[in-house]
Amino acid sequence: MAQVDGDWDCITKSPLGEQKSVFTVRSNGDTFTGQQAGAMGSLDVIDGKVDGNKLTWKMEMKVPMPMTLDCQATVDGDTLTGTVGAGAFGSFPLTGTRKG
Known about the structure:
Elements: E1 6-14, E2 17-28, E3 31-38, E4 41-44, E5 46-51, E6 54-61, E7 67-76, E8 79-85, E9 91-98
Antiparallel strand pairs: 1-2, 1-9, 2-3, 3-4, 3-5, 5-6, 6-7, 7-8, 8-9
């Protein structure tokens, strides 16, 4: 199992510009909990799953409009890459580096 746990400095490239956040991952077997906290507030991880070095999860966004985000990422050492799916708005690239 890859070491996915940690605090990640992330950037999501959205239509509103680059959204910086800290993504917290705490795994427990094949599931994980955590949150993504940034300037627009924090969102809790919902239905977080771990498959080797791959993470999938959902988040319920409230601002600027309510919507469920479908997220996935792959951890490679101290690097995280993935996408944030925002329904009809498409998917946005997510990148992150593990905090020291």
